[in-house]
Specification:
Strand content: 35-45%
Number of strands: 5
Radius of gyration: 10 Å
Number of helices: 1
Largest sheet: 5 strands, antiparallel
Shape: globular
């Protein structure tokens, strides 16, 4: 499965955010990936390897 994403891509993660929404926007790409919840605007940062494991689907490139 090709998981291609870039800055401002919308992605769906395997587990939803505690607010109940699982759609995220990528706000930083590098060794770490920063994503922002599209529902409550909270941001989290995680290593790229962890992000790739938790990524389910890329909605928009």
């Amino acid at each position: 499965m090709n998981k291609e994403y870039k800055l401002n891509s919308l992605v769906i993660m395997k587990k939803p955010h505690p607010c109940g929404f699982n759609e995220w926007e990528i706000t930083r790409v590098g060794a770490d990936i920063k994503i922002k919840c599209c529902h409550c605007n909270r941001s989290i940062m995680m290593p790229r390897m962890e992000f790739n494991k938790k990524l389910k689907k890329v909605i928009t490139f």
